[in-house]
Amino acid sequence: MDYIVYAIPVFLVMIFIEVIITRLRKKDYYRLNDSINSLSMGMLSISSGILTKVIEVAIYTTIFSIVAIFELSTGDWWVWLLAWFAYDLCFYWGHRKGHEINILWAAHVIHHQSEEYNLTTALRQSSSKFLLGWIFYIPLAIIGIPPIVFFTVGLVNLLYQFWVHTRHVPKLGWYELFFVTPSNHRVHHAKNRKYLDKNYGGVFIIWDRIFGTFQEEQDEGEYEPIRYGTLKPLRSWNPIWANFQIYQALWADAKATGSWKEKFTLWFRKTGYRPVDVTKPMKFPDIHGYKNYNPVVSNSLTIYAGIQFFILMIATTSLMATYHLTPGWQNTLSIAVIALNLLMIGWLLEKPQKTIKLETTRFSISLAALILVSLKPVISPLPLIVGLAIALPSLLIIHFTGMNRDVVVTEEVQEAL
Questions:
Q1: Which terminus of the chain has fewer Cβ atoms in its 10 Å neighbourhood, N or C?
Q2: Helices and strands in the chain: count of H runs, count of E runs
Q3: Cis peptide before 377, with omega less than 30 degrees from 0?
Q4: Gap between the Cα atoms of 117 and 23, Å rounded
């Protein structure tokens, strides 16, 4: 079982508390569609991690067994302390290069696509970082950090980063000098020119101070309001597309350029670089010249999508808690079905006029998968019964409430009304 399962309830409780505080303070830090999209990224990341984590473990342990200079013991406290600081230093450089190199940005951009900044943003994680992210941790294998220490420290490092994704916590005095905090991490997620590509630390902000990438958050009135997200907004609730957006753009440029050198090197050039024979260099956009992506659908459809998403969260948590007990083919099928469901729920919040078609397709494929699971290794009708108990009432609700006749109300039309 993945230990992240134990953290999921804590994450959800903290998100619920932040939502309540946001309401009480009458702030607009949460939108259900954006939160569903961010959580969808996290669910895709941890579920696909069932398959990709094997690769990460294999790579580190192989490198460790071949190149480790020292044989450090897991029983020595100083080994854990060394790993704690060294891991975060490696994280700093991996994170920094993830912002500075095209192909690395393609994997990391997912975390920055949300135009809100709240605790759900913390769970917005990439599903492809396993491809190249391991490169930056090779020094730890070389100095002999044992795999169990490496992965444990890495997990704790990641868990620490959750709480800093909030707008409710102000500056924390002396703590700001040494550690990553909500204040200095808000700067990292901002796309304002002054804040862009700053504050890369995971736990310690000291690396940014040492290597010249630190930027303090300015007090209200000292600088323009923060805008979150990316310079080229995603403008979609499709979690699959979000993971491939930059990869597709790089591939399109590689095909379009007439230079063979550019076809191979553009992937490793500075983030945002595009061949001169494809397009002109990108100018810094007016980040205050447009509104956040927010296609408006009816309240009934929004609530419906939220309920369906909550059911999917339960299914994903169940998968993470039991995948070690089920065969690989079943885990792979479950991951694919979860991805499909997340895609369809994202589309519901963009294409309400196609609700019946989307939901019929989603339930049909999901039920087919449940039938397959029910037949192997022994016949068990329970998964199918549960699936039908969710699918049939849902389709009836859509039909009789008229959700399928909802249309998107654009922000411009809404203002005119």
A1: C
A2: 17, 0
A3: yes
A4: 15
**Domain extents in the chain:** 4-211, 299-405
Question: What are the structure tokens assigned to 382, written together?
Answer: 């329970």
User: What is d(CA 111, CA 21) in angstroms, rounded to the nearest whole number?
Assistant: 24
Cβ-in-10-Å burial (0-12, 13-18, 19+) of 289 comes to: exposed
382-401 helix and 355-375 helix, angle to the nearest 10 degrees: 170
What mean pLDDT is reported for the chain?
89
Please give the pLDDT value at position 379: 44
The answer to whether the beta carbons of residues 347 and 354 sit under 8 Å apart is yes
Strand partners, 409: 296
Please say whether the beta carbons of 32 and 227 come within 8 A.
Answer: no
**pLDDT tens digits for range 164-222:** 999 999 999 999 999 999 999 999 999 999 999 999 999 999 999 999 999 999 987 88
Neighbours of 399 (CB within 10 A): 13
296 three-class SS: strand
pTM equals 0.90
Asked if residues 394 and 303 have their Cβ atoms less than 8 Å apart, the reply is no
Which parts of the chain sit beneath pLDDT 70? 1-2, 375-417
